[in-house]
């Protein structure tokens, strides 16, 4: 009497190898996705860090200009070289200047002058990027040609 060594109900070696290959493939795909996500997060953090640094450098320069304007007013010197404009509105004198943050943004400052005192009226970041929204897409109107 011969014994049958084959297993009728078990998993064959070939199917277990396919399951291991599939599991390994899933792990590789998920690790690549995690790496790409981490790389994108790093790039975003660097971009935000550079923008923040540029803003605070411009803020520091704007503060120095404000201090120079105050010193010049106190000492009776001209402030024309430090400011972009001087104008009068509603009986108050306003002084304005701007400091470049980067190629698309600037820090715009407006001060209200009363005597030798200056009060900050506006200290805002202004986006100077020109955007053209006149891109047209020709859409078929429904008429068939002759």
UniProtKB/TrEMBL annotation:
Q: Which residue ranges run through the membrane?
A: 12-35
Q: Which UniProt keywords apply?
A: Membrane, Transmembrane, Transmembrane helix
Q: Which domain of life is it from?
A: Bacteria
Q: What is this protein called?
A: Type 4 fimbrial biogenesis protein PilX N-terminal domain-containing protein
């Amino acid at each position: 009497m011969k014994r049958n060594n084959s297993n009728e109900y078990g998993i064959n070696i070939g199917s277990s190898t396919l399951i291991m290959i599939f599991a390994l493939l899933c792990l590789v795909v998920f690790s690549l996705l995690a790496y790409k996500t981490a790389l994108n997060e790093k790039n975003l953090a660097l971009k935000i860090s550079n923008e923040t640094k540029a803003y605070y450098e411009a803020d520091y320069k704007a503060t120095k200009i404000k201090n120079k304007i105050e010193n010049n007013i106190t000492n009776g010197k001209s402030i024309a070289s430090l400011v972009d404009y001087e104008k009068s509105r509603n009986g108050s004198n306003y002084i304005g200047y701007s400091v470049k943050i980067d190629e698309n943004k600037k820090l715009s400052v407006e001060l209200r002058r009363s005597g030798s005192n200056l009060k900050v009226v506006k200290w805002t970041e202004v986006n100077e990027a020109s955007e053209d929204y006149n891109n047209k897409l020709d859409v078929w109107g429904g008429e068939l040609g002759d």
